[in-house]
C-alpha cells in the first residue's frame, strides 16, 4: 500500500505487511454511499485511517497512523489500536485475584500500561470476516500472557454506516477469573491528520461532573473530584488549549496537559450513553461519542515525541491529535471503590462505542 494512501472508493482487502514470525497483517477498507471510508489493519485491529467530510463536503483522513507495518512495530504509540488486556495503567503492574497476586510488566515507569510489553496492539489479529460496512477481527491472548491469568478470546467489530457513524464493539470471554479493560486508542484531529494543525483550538464537551486526579506516577489517588470551576470542567464546550497551561493546576503539570479519567455521568450501562462532543471550528467537523463504559480517558497528545513518522512524511508532535478512550477506570484492579474490571468464566465482556461524525455550517 503506498504512502499516504488515497481515499478508497470501494471496499477492498490486502496485505499490509508480515510480522517477524511470518504472520500476515491484512488491511481492509469500509466505504459508505457518501464516500466516507475507514481503513483497518490486523496489527492490533487498528483504525489506520478514517476519511470524513468537512462543512463543504471535502473528505480528509482525521486519525493518526503510519503508512507501513515496520513503522508501527518500531514506534509503539498505540495509534488507533485496540489496547489491553488492561487499557491504561495498573500501579506497580500488580493486582490480586482470589488471594493470589499477579505481576504484569512495568513498561511505563513503575506501572503497567496498555497491557504490558506485548499488549494486544502488537498482535496480528485475524480478519475473520468483512463486507463494505463491517470488519471483524479476532485474537486469543493465552493464559499467562504478560502475566494476566486465563485464556482470553477477543473480538473487535467495526461498522461504518451511511450516516457517517462508526461503531466499535469489543467482546471477550475468559476461562479463568481475570481483569479486562479494552478500548480503541484512536488519535483524532478533525482538521486532518496530514494537513491539519494542532488540536488546541478544538472545542470539547464532556458529560462528566467528576474526574479522578492522579499522583506523580499518573495513578488515580482514589478521589472522585468535582470538575466545577476548574480546567477540567468541560460540561460546556471549551477550547482544549484555553486552560491547558494553567500554572495554578498541579494536575496539568503532572500529566503535561490532559491525561485523566473522567467519570461519565450516565456511563456504565448496557446501552451506549452520550459521553463527549468534539468540534473543529476551522473545518466544521464534529464528533459525538456515546459508550457503554463508565469512564473516558481524555488525552491531549502530550507525549507525542515530535520525531514520530506519520502519514505522508508528516512528523507527529505534541498536541497534533487527542484521544477519547472509553474504558474502565485506571488501576481499577487495585481500587475497590472503582467500577470492577473483573471477568469470570461464563461472563461476556462487551464494550460498545459509537462515533457519530457530522459538520457545522
Give a verbal description of the structure.
The chain is mainly β. The chain has a single domain (13-359), classed as Beta-galactosidase, Chain A, domain 5 (Distorted Sandwich), CATH 2.70.98.10. It is built from two helices and 29 strands. The mean pLDDT is 95.
Q: TL;DR of this structure?
A:
The chain has two helices and 29 strands. The protein is mainly β.
List keywords for this structure.
single chain, 361 residues, mainly beta, 9-stranded antiparallel beta sheet, 5-stranded antiparallel beta sheet, 2 helices
What's the SSE blueprint?
Blueprint: E1 13-18, E2 24-31, E3 37-41, E4 46-53, E5 59-61, H1 69-74, E6 82-83, E7 89-91, E8 94-97, E9 100-103, E10 111-113, E11 126-131, E12 134-141, E13 152-160, E14 165-174, E15 178-179, E16 183-184, E17 203-206, E18 210-212, E19 225-226, E20 238-239, H2 250-255, E21 259-263, E22 273-279, E23 285-291, E24 295-299, E25 308-309, E26 315-316, E27 323-327, E28 342-343, E29 349-359
Antiparallel strand pairs: 1-2, 2-3, 3-4, 4-5, 6-16, 7-10, 8-9, 11-12, 12-13, 13-14, 14-29, 15-28, 17-20, 17-22, 18-19, 18-21, 21-24, 22-23, 23-29, 24-27, 25-26
